[in-house]
Amino acid sequence: MSITDTRVAPTTLRTAAGGEATGWVAAHCRRAPWLTAATVLTTVAGAVLQVLPVLLLGRVVDGVVEGESRSMLVMVGVLMVAAALLGAAATAASTYLIGRLGADLLAQLREAAVRAVLAMPSARVEQVGRGDVLSRVGDDVAVLSKGIRTAVPTVFSAGVLVAIATVGMFGLDWRLGLAGACALPAYALALRWYLPRSAPLYREQRVAQADRAQALISGLNGIDTVRAYRLEGAVREKVTQESWRVRNLGVEVFRFFGRFVGRENRAEFIGLVLILVVGYALLEADAATLGEVSAAPLMFHRLFTPLGAIMFTFDEAQKSGASLTRLVGVLGEPAEDRLVGDVSVAPADTAPYPVTVEGLTFSYPDTEEPVLRDVNLSIPAGGSLALVGVTGAGKSTLAALIAGIGSPQAGSVRIGSHDLAAFDEAGARALVSILTQETHVFSGPLADDLRLAAPEASDERLMDALRTVGAGGWVELLPDGLNAMVGEGGERLDGTKVAQIALARLVLSRSPVVVLDESTAEAGSEGAAELERAVLAARSGRTTLLVAHRLTQAMAADRIAVLDAGRVVEEGTHGELVALGGQYARLWSAWREGS
Questions:
Q1: What is the dihedral of CA 85, 90, 92, 94, to 10 degrees?
Q2: Residue 403 DSSP one-character state
Q3: With contact defined as beta carbons under 8 Å apart, do 2 and 518 qualify?
Q4: Judging by beta carbons within 10 Å of its beta carbon (0-12, 13-18, 19+), is residue 382 exposed, middle or buried?
Q5: 372-379, strands of its sheet edge to edge
Q6: pLDDT mean across residues, the chain
């Protein structure tokens, strides 16, 4: 959805519950049993080997007290060194395996999320806003990737070490273990206080970041509209507002984490004091050895490091958890039955079809006022119609419906004799091609990028399409021509060249109707005239609907329709509408002054 039609805040994609996300992870771990088992075994072995030197230290103390031989003490010392070295090796192996397992899971989740997004109905993507979609397959993947490299190995390894050390304390003496365990309620209370408050806060932070991305994307993609209608201040205020919202949530998250750390330190203090008091009492009553009493506080203190590691990575772990629930939530979004549907409706020749819109009424979910009201339009076969109107008039919404994106609550859109409501999106694409300013060049050979529109096209046909839109010259100058790598890591293409590639795809497609929504906006003023000529060439011989954000584009159309509050209020040629002195004439006057 362009900035011109974002009057209400879009709903967001679903977010999974914690249990659902955990279930997804567990299911995928079961699909890699050997890697999962090796990860768990090395983690447990590393934790045991890290605790063993503390237990052996208690044995050394008792040995000294009891007058054990020097050879026995040396043997225990060797065992302590060996345990420390083996523990370090096991911990390193565990960290690697956790990272390997996490990377595999992330790769599967990322691919599944991208597939889910590609399978969504286009209307759903338009409804939630591209900011939410992009933040999930982009920002959330990045956050989760960082968490898998840092927080997840730390939390998992530290958690296992805490469990083993607790068992070790009970192994020394059940009363010392019980004294240390008295700190657990304080830890549990700290977590019980923190988790219910922080998890929603992290999710809200991710949503705020998505809203900020949507505000930025909308403003940048609609930059020409923003400038033409002098909306710079409103867009800047929106971005600033969303940025402050992200900042304030970040401060709130840090404040909660600081209070959580204080509660954790209180639990450590309680546990250590109880162990020292109980140990002294047992020693005085001759109910425990000096070695056991000495090892117990060291064992409890051994918990400080992993618990501290958990606390100081908990922030990252919480972010990763929030991103995980958002990504898993995408997998549960309703999808089209077919990504590629029945395209048998594609015309056998390139003859244009007429477009007829009758009684079209459309409302977004959770809104009372319709965006479009009883719209009637017709475009003769091979003709062109430009849609103009002020911000929020409904231009992009109408263009999307004519392209088969979404379904109206009333009325119909017919392409020739075909009612678009009878087709899935693949069928609609066979009849109508839509081109917006949000064009994308995929990483890979230029020829592959062009063949997205015509998989069987020959190199000669590709070059003909490029020449049609004025791109043949610079493509022929590329070192590898059509085989040149473009996109990320390839040839750097400016906005004009990217738009030309998109227009070349349009030439290669067989659809008899084309919808152009601000399709040359990214080129800027320098490439605008060149691209407008390319647009005329690309749509030649086809029925065309233009959402004209530059009124010079509207002048080139056969007829112009003016939308206001979702209704067609004027229709005619440029000259007729200027002479009428109505809304179009005022828009034309404002456009000339702005230019």
A1: -170
A2: T
A3: yes
A4: middle
A5: 372-379, 355-362, 410-415, 418-419
A6: 78
The residue type found at 228 is A
Locate 541 and state its tokens. Answer: 């011989």
- Each residue of 301-322: pLDDT tens digit? 777 667 666 766 766 777 788 8
* Residue among 166, 194, 196 at smallest CA distance from 182: 166
Tally: H helices and E strands in the chain = 22, 12
End-to-end, the C-alpha distance of the chain in Å comes to: 25
Residue 31: count of CB within 10 angstroms of its CB? 11
Q: What is the pLDDT of residues 346-375, one digit of tens each?
A: 454 557 889 999 988 888 766 777 888 888
| Sequence-ordered list of residues with C-beta below 8 angstroms from that of 329, at least 6 positions apart, any chain | 13, 14, 15, 16, 20
Q: How many CB atoms lie within 10 A of CB 553?
A: 23
* Single-letter code of the amino acid located at 527: G
- What does the chain come to in residues? 595
CB 311 within 8 Å of CB 260: yes
The span from the CA of 167 to the CA of 203, in Å, is 35
d(CA 470, CA 479) in angstroms, rounded, equals 18
The whole-angstrom separation of Cα 267 and Cα 269 is: 5
Tokens of 241: 């507002």
For residues 279 and 296, the answer to whether their CB atoms sit within 8 Å is yes
369 touches 409 (CB < 8 A): no
CA distance 550 to 388: 9
Which residue is associated with the tokens 């081109």? Answer: 435
DSSP bridge partners of 412 = 358
Cross-strand pairs, 567: 564
Q: What is the pTM of this model?
A: 0.53
Which SS3 state, helix, strand or coil, does residue 581 take?
coil
The two three-digit tokens of residue 520, written as one number: 């040359």
Nearest-angstrom CA–CA distance, 221 and 464: 29
Structure tokens at 595: 């230019």
Q: Pick from 560, 554, 536, 542: which is nearest to 355 by CA?
A: 542
